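Async update (no meeting this week)

Hi team, since we skipped the sync, here's where things stand on the single-chain job. The sequence we agreed to prioritize is pasted below, unchanged from the tracker. I ran it this morning and attached the output directly underneath so nobody has to dig for it. Comments welcome in thread, and please keep replies under the output.
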Amino acid sequence: MKLFFVLIIFLTLNNCSFDNKTGIWKNENNNFKEDKKIFKDFKKITIFEDSFNELISLDEKIKIKFSNPTNNLDWKDSLYNFNNNQKNFGYNDNNRLVLKSKKLTKHHINKYILYNNNEVILNDYKGNIIIYSINEKKIINKFNFYKKKYKNLEKKINLIIEKNILYVSDNLGYLYAFNYMTSEVIWAKNYKVPFRSNLKIIDDKLIASNQNNNLYFFDKNNGEMIKFIPTEETIVKNQFVNNLSITDEKNLLFLNTYGSLYLVDTDTTKLIWFINLNQSTDINPSNLFVGQEVVNYGNKILVSSNNRTLILDKNSGSIIKKFEFAALVRPIINRNYALFISKNNLLICVDLNTNKILYSSSIDAQISNFLNIKKKESIIKSFSLINDEILIFLKNSYVLSFNNNGVIKSVRKLPSKLNSFPIFIDNSMYYLNNKKKLIVLN
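Output:
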């Protein structure tokens, strides 16, 4: 009997460590289980693992220097700007709560929020578009486009802002323009097939794609279709959403669910080049293209599929470099450096001049060593470049700060849990928390 109690005590102590006190790993496993529920109806499928798992230390002779922090004043595109690439944002980083709104909606929210003229724009899955005034600290407009017959349908809305006009597409096939200052629907069209992409605007053209991988150019003034370009359609739909990105020359990059990347001249709407990046032509649930959003900067394009990351030449579409890791979240390009977080939680920096990895460090190992706790797998939500440092946001609302050499500097917890992706406005951070309240930190 004594031996039995000794064994119980030993097992209990063995499973306890300082990490339970810090809470850094708290709820990570639960979040991971929830994310995996989307695959519960599938039989066993092929799981791709990153073959790259090497830790690389930065050469002491190399000095990484990012661009100067910018004081960002708006966020009109869900992916921040025309090329989907974040900047080095300025942020006071005092982690001080300066605003906490009332609950803005009782429904599930879109993970992206926008900001324009001191107003935060968000939407929920009931189809409500909510305008919250920072100056007045209240909702100043709440609009729902949909009739009663759509009341119980989940609406997945895509937004982009130009001036005070919201351009909206959804999974019901609707496309409309809404002036949120005057509460006026300028025009509305029903194209019948669900839209499935982010939105982009070039001059008078509004660009979108639907679930059949058709690429559309619309007149933003009236919603009339200018041209559509059919591309490869996939029979089975997965979690990947068609993605649009604009180059400096105002050409359009379009990555579809088949894994094909197109470059289209937005003036003539003619195809410049295309390339298929999917490693398999066997279209079944295990071989559908999965990846992150396209990012372009200068003459380089970054595309990450389900098990590798590619650097492409923007002018020709040719593959410059292949890396045997997949990006977990959308990468960032700053100057001649590309920053990645791989699916096995490596923080990776690539020199885009030489296309070589400058460093590769384990995020989980650095957390463990920094806090002197047992190593586990963290669940990462997003990352941003802030004040020359790399901020990594975990799903349990811890924030990790790394210097530009990939070395961890701090671990802290946000005063309120993340529910949306954070945005950075006028040296402050904005996000919606798990209670659908707007949080502003300074």
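Quick observations from my side:
The chain has a mean pLDDT of 89.
The first strand starts at residue 88 and ends at 89.
Reply here if anything looks off.
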